[in-house]
């Protein structure tokens, strides 16, 4: 009974204390700090003015969309390849509308792969990727907050929405709703990242 009462009173503070959430937040903080340092170094040393970055811009212009699609598919399947950072880096060199659409479709497809595998293979498959303790925590988060927390996680690139996609498949939630709520929040997030990337590109002199 006390255990059930504790779960019933499970709130936002408890979610933030969960080990998988703490790890994600720590990783996000480190990533943001590293990103700020890299941007500062690029500006200070005018690295974007070198021939290397001119060639990089040409590469993105010619092959960027295909590469971004592949990276975002893999990133959607819980392999951390830094797709948000790649989208920001590519945004000064690639058509912004196409970049947003391709990145969003790629990430959504990766999430759908997670959903399908969890749906078909069930708990044994999930527990190879998520510990039993984390699975219980995440499943309870889903049962308590459901789609609203999924949307929030989808809107914030540093939060592990990929983990929730496994839960959606495992619990056999509506695939139509899953696809829509995977695509739309990530479309918004990538739109913001592309705008940020273009702003930073202009500030750094890349465009």
Taken in chain order, the helices and strands follow as HHHHHHHHHH
Q: Look at the structure and give the mean pLDDT.
A: 79
| Total count of helical runs of at least 4 residues | 10
What ranges have pLDDT less than 50 throughout 5 or more consecutive residues?
A: 1-6
Helix content: over 70%
Shape annotation: globular
First-residue to last-residue Cα separation = 62 Å
Q: Characterize the main sheet.
A: none
Estimate the strand proportion: under 5%
- Structural domain count: 1
Structural class: mainly alpha
**Cα-based radius of gyration, to the nearest Å:** 19 Å
What is the number of beta strands? 0
* Oligomer type: single chain
Brief characterization of the structure:
This protein is mainly α. It has helices at residues 2-8, 12-17, 19-44, 51-76, 83-90, 96-126, 132-145, 147-155, 161-170, 175-204.
Structural features, described:
- The chain has 207 residues and is mostly helical.
- It has one domain (11-204).
- It has 10 helices and no strands.
- The longest helix is centred in the middle third of the chain and has 31 residues, at 96-126.
- Residues 1-6 have low confidence and may be disordered.
């Amino acid at each position: 009974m006390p255990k059930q009462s504790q779960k019933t009173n499970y709130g936002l503070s408890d979610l933030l204390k969960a080990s998988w959430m703490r790890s994600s937040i720590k990783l996000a903080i480190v990533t943001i700090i590293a990103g700020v340092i890299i941007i500062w170094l690029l500006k200070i040393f005018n690295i974007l003015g070198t021939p290397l970055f001119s060639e990089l811009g040409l590469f993105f212009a010619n092959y960027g969309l295909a590469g971004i699609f592949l990276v975002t598919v893999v990133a959607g399947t819980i392999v951390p390849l830094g797709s948000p950072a790649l989208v920001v880096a590519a945004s000064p060199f690639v058509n912004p509308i196409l970049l947003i659409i391709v990145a969003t479709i790629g990430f959504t497809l990766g999430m759908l792969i997670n959903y399908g595998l969890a749906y078909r293979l069930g708990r044994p498959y999930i527990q190879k990727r998520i510990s039993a303790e984390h699975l219980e925590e995440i499943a309870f988060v889903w049962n308590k907050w459901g789609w609203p927390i999924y949307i929030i996680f989808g809107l914030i690139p540093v939060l592990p929405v990929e983990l929730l996609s496994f839960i959606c498949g495992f619990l056999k939630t509506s695939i139509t709703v899953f696809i829509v709520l995977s695509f739309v929040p990530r479309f918004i997030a990538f739109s913001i990242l592309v705008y940020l990337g273009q702003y930073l590109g202009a500030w750094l002199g890349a465009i």
